[in-house]
Amino acid sequence: MTTVTHLISSTPTLARDIDGKAISAQVLDEVREEVLALAGQQIFPALAVLLVGDDPASHVYVRNKLLRAKEVGIRSLEYRLPDDASQAQVLEQIAQLNADASVNGILVQLPLPGHIDEAAVIHAIDPIKDVDGFHRENVGGLVQGMEVLTPCTPSGCMRLLKETCGDISGLHAVVIGRSNIVGKPMATLLLQAHCSVSVVHSRSVDAPALCRLADIVVAAVGRPHLIDASWLKPGAVVIDVGINRVTDESGSHLVGDVDYASARTVARAITPVPGGVGPMTIAYLLKNTLIAAKLQRAVKAREPDPDGCDSDIN
Ligand SMILES: Nc1nc(=O)c2c([nH]1)NC[C@@H]1CN(c3ccc(C(=O)N[C@@H](CCC(=O)O)C(=O)O)cc3)C=[N+]21
């Protein structure tokens, strides 16, 4: 008689990577196609990016946005103001871009220098050109389920989830972080996709325990490596929005809010950093520029013809 001994592998199955680079390339292809279709209607979408000051990280991001825009055939205009620009100067620049019918999208790179009131600047942007989706009119519309310009990072995360999980209806999603630019709109979009949504934040009692209840985890807190395997239910899908620059013995590099090496031993799928959410944000910014151009065309079509206004008087 022979005894068969099964070797039990001690290597756990690792999560698969959610390839934000590849999926963003798909989104950019969709955008490129639509740019061509709009060109046939004499519409040439344009994005204006305003950068105040000289934060080096902001320069890199803005350069990437402008490069991607060019690749898909969206015209981009870069405006710069010095670090000591007054709020009035920033508002004046926005007023000029609002009034320019050839500009479809306006993005003011955040953060702004400390002496400038960020909310005042965001709300000076014409909501129909607000490609970041940060204006209260767009935020309100989003919460009410209307078709409005929607923040780019949460839109990108939803696309990653769709490509990874298909229908997420009924799943429990935990969003870690409650910022206006990611956490809150992310929770709103997940709710719209029929998830049960919990928002975990710095005051949560036992955040890891809440997170362990999640089928989907979206981490957007800006704390390097905060979330490790001990926060995750086996098989959870993890979207890491964090982009933290850290310096260690191997030099300076980007890490997420999730401890990738640890989390992937428990999760089913996970976004890497870089190459996960970041490229999706840019792809959806360009998608929003197209949406803005189309919204503006629809508004224009409803306006009375300025040359025809005398015609029914005589
Ligand atoms: N009004 C405004 N809207 C924004 O959308 C906005 C902003 N301000 N301020 C700064 C943050 C940050 N952000 C990123 C976009 C893409 C990458 C990105 O493509 N990251 C690459 C790596 C880039 C690298 O290597 O440095 C990746 O994750 O693979 C990162 C960060 C948009 N932001």
From TrEMBL:
Functional pathway: One-carbon metabolism; tetrahydrofolate interconversion
Task of the protein: Catalyzes the oxidation of 5,10-methylenetetrahydrofolate to 5,10-methenyltetrahydrofolate and then the hydrolysis of 5,10-methenyltetrahydrofolate to 10-formyltetrahydrofolate.
UniProt-annotated binding residues for NADP(+): G177, R178, S179, I243
HAMAP family recorded: THF_DHG_CYH (MF_01576)
Transmembrane segments: none
EC number: 1.5.1.5, 3.5.4.9
Pfam family, one: THF_DHG_CYH_C
Stated family: Belongs to the tetrahydrofolate dehydrogenase/cyclohydrolase family.
Protein name (Swiss-Prot/TrEMBL): Bifunctional protein FolD
PANTHER family reported in the protein's UniProt record: C-1-TETRAHYDROFOLATE SYNTHASE, CYTOPLASMIC, C-1-TETRAHYDROFOLATE SYNTHASE, CYTOPLASMIC-RELATED
All residue ranges annotated as the Tetrahydrofolate dehydrogenase/cyclohydrolase NAD(P)-binding domain in the record: 151-296
Keywords, sorted A to Z: Amino-acid biosynthesis, Histidine biosynthesis, Hydrolase, Methionine biosynthesis, Multifunctional enzyme, NADP, One-carbon metabolism, Oxidoreductase, Purine biosynthesis
Subunit-structure text: Homodimer.
Cellular component annotations (GO), alphabetically ordered: cytosol
NCBIfam families: PRK14188.1
Coiled-coil zones: none
SUPFAM superfamilies with a match to the protein in the record: Aminoacid dehydrogenase-like, N-terminal domain (SSF53223), NAD(P)-binding Rossmann-fold domains (SSF51735)
Keyword match rRNA-binding: no
Classification via CDD domains: NAD_bind_m-THF_DH_Cyclohyd (cd01080)
Any GO MF annotation of the entry: methenyltetrahydrofolate cyclohydrolase activity
The Tetrahydrofolate dehydrogenase/cyclohydrolase catalytic domain, residue ranges: 18-132
Catalytically driven reaction(s): (6R)-5,10-methenyltetrahydrofolate + H2O = (6R)-10-formyltetrahydrofolate + H(+); (6R)-5,10-methylene-5,6,7,8-tetrahydrofolate + NADP(+) = (6R)-5,10-methenyltetrahydrofolate + NADPH
Organism domain of life: Bacteria
GO BP, sorted A to Z: L-histidine biosynthetic process; methionine biosynthetic process; purine nucleotide biosynthetic process; tetrahydrofolate interconversion
